[in-house]
Fold this sequence. Notes:
CATH topology of the domain at 114-277 in chain A: Thrombin, subunit H
Order of helices and strands of chain A: HHHHEEEEEEEEEEEEHHEHEEHHE
Distance between the termini of chain B: 26 Å
CATH topology of chain B: Arp2/3 complex 21 kDa subunit ARPC3
CATH class of the domain at 114-277 in chain A: Mainly Beta
Structural class of chain A: alpha+beta
Mean pLDDT of chain B: 87
Low-confidence stretches of chain A: 306-406
Oligomer: heterodimer
Low-confidence stretches of chain B: 1-8
CATH superfamily of the domain at 114-277 in chain A: Rod shape-determining protein MreC, domain 1
CATH class of chain B: Mainly Alpha
Helix content of chain A: 25-40%
Mean pLDDT of chain A: 72
Number of strands of chain A: 16
Structural class of chain B: mainly alpha
Largest sheet of chain B: 2 strands, antiparallel
Shape of chain B: globular
Number of domains of chain B: 1
CATH architecture of the domain at 114-277 in chain A: Beta Barrel
Largest interface: A-B, 52 and 47 residues
Helix content of chain B: 55-70%
Amino acid sequence: MESVLGRYRNLIVLVGVLFAQVLGLAVQVRRTTDNEPTRLIRIWAVGTVTPFERVLVWARTSTNNIWHNYFYLRGVRAENRSLKQQIERMNLEQVRMSQDADQARRLQALLAFKEQYISQTMAAQVIGSSGSEQSRLVYIDKGEKDGIKSDMAVITADGVVGKVLNVYRSVSQVLLINDHSSGVGAILEKSRTQGIVRGTAAGEVMLEKVMSDEIVPVGEQVLTSGGDSIFPKGLLVGRVTKVAPGSELFLNIRVSPAADLSKLEEVLVVTKIDERQVQPDKTGAARAVDILAERLPTVPSKPENAEKAATPGADTPRIVTPKSVAPETVSPTTATPKTLAPTIVGPDVKPRTAPSNASIGSGATTAHKSATPLSTNSSASTTKPAAAADATKEPNAQPVVEGAPR
Amino acid sequence: MAITYTSGEQVEVYRFSWVATVVILLGALLLQAFLPIWLPFVRIFDLPLLITIGFATARRSPLAGLLTGGLIGILQDALTHQPIGLYGISLTVVGFGASSLGIKLDVENAGARFLLTIFFYVVHEVVYFTIARGLVGLHMAWSWPHEFLSGIANALLGVLVFMLLDRVKQRT
């Protein structure tokens, strides 16, 4: 017996070790929702590897900083100039969007909507990965002691990255959206078709559960739907890159993630999502027209006879340049019209044209065109570019205002 | 590129110091987990597998080979979100197989090491795939071209890794 054991010792040990591991696997698979039995091993492994990773990341970041901040400054001036121009453009775009958002808020308030918004995030550095093609996750340098909890959403400025899976003392595991076990409630931006974004075993991202009779154009944006209670609604997930008929009744929709999941350096962990009843904005935010008007040439002083004609009585509307229109001094009916300079102010009047003479110039017309889509209160602002164009043909044209004496 | 058949008496058995073993093992795990965040293509390499094969063929002890493989695999599993034991089982098999083969074959030259690494890479992938899909029920994608290219890439890197291991191994 002893000789048999001695002869097959290696094989017996192999079988024993394999059996123990298979048994361990079976126990873990049975307790799919509870990873406590293996937590200790994971803590040891993570605790052993991540300190070195932190040191490596620190060394790399420091070297990069020294190089980029002190030595490699070529082209910074040109870049600075270009960025300033970009900021100008984005400021205008932001104002335009805030107008749209205000309108949406008013409508949501009417419908008693409750909106979700990200009220708190925490920046974290990616310090490592699982190192396996079968497990697409990264480690971040924030953990339990920083207030990170499981199932918190992780994003970048570009889009959704994943969610926090396991939290350790000072590091956390983030499961990426291209892992085959991940899932994100999603919605197509234009068609508002809902689906589930899942990763595949090959590391691709697919939008699933979209019926084959839906029309999904390539390039359409995929946003979070908020239905999974992890990701707030409206975050960019990616873009549709390929649509093909799939098995059964669903489409195979491939999505290119908005965030570069293969090169993550810094991420934001959404630590707090609030929900509130939508309140319409009553503060009177800066309007696009005001900002545009500030960039236009000012209106020169009018000739005396024109001024007299424009102010025959108390009920006659006044013409003021946008610069002089302070939000607090303008009545609500006159604050909302999205007419461009000059704004016509008066009791119960509907301004029809803006320019009183040619000095307002083509800039006003151009600006008018760009301001038109911003109109949110059409009853109060019925500017007519055609009429404005007619008015500019007459050298001493008077403002044409509905309801005002002509 | 000859894989010569040798007797048990002819093969040389090596050992590694504890310090070297721990440093190499942790270093492999660290690089495997760390490098892909900068260089995503590095993900196709499997350094813990190469270290397992390297240790096993140098020591030529099936018992040490399977235990080392099992330990490395469990640590590798611990860094993933998969159940612990997937890499553990496959590296246990690889460790045992590589050390058993190391007793019978001369694996001191680069060509033999190249072929040996390809062979055990495939064994590793097959065992992992079988366990993950059959026992745990994970969704796994098997692609022969990908496996073939990964096998070649790992074998090339393996030749270099074994040369580095040669420098720290000690004759018993």
